[in-house]
Amino acid sequence: MIIQNRRAKFKFNLKEKLEVGLSLHGNEIKGIRSGKVSLEESFVRITGGEAYLVGAYIAPYQAEKGDPKRDRKLLLHKKEINSLYGKVSRLGLTIIPTKVYTKAGKIKVEIALASSKKVVDKRAFLKEKDVKREIERTLREEKLKFQKESRV
Length: 152
Hints:
The chain is an alpha+beta fold. The chain folds into 2 domains: 2-116, Small protein B (Small Protein B, Chain: A, Beta Barrel), CATH 2.40.280; 118-152. The chain has helices at 7-11, 28-33, 78-91, 119-151; strands spanning 2-4, 12-22, 37-38, 43-47, 50-54, 57-58, 72-75, 94-103, 106-116.
């Protein structure tokens, strides 16, 4: 089970990825395993020497009480936190979550250092996507023609 932040590739240029653990309360794990997670407007904030996932929506399991958008602590080593903080402050990058998944029974989050795309980059991305789709469509049609001709 993998929950992805699909808008991340469209809005940002992803540079460096890192797998981290996530500190959760009881029923949040069940909420994640049921797939009720949204990373759309979430980001990572480093304060007081610790990293927090801010703005991620994790639906509470059944009718449990709690804030589904609370800040959640990310489990990182001090070296990793200092490295990320240095890159964010020096290079003006942002840290965003790209995936939430389970690994060996534990919930993991893939975070990425990212820089914002400009409007021109987004247009180029969409154009490239359309060209790839058109090429695939043409190849599929040619393959079907070839199969029909070979049967006759």
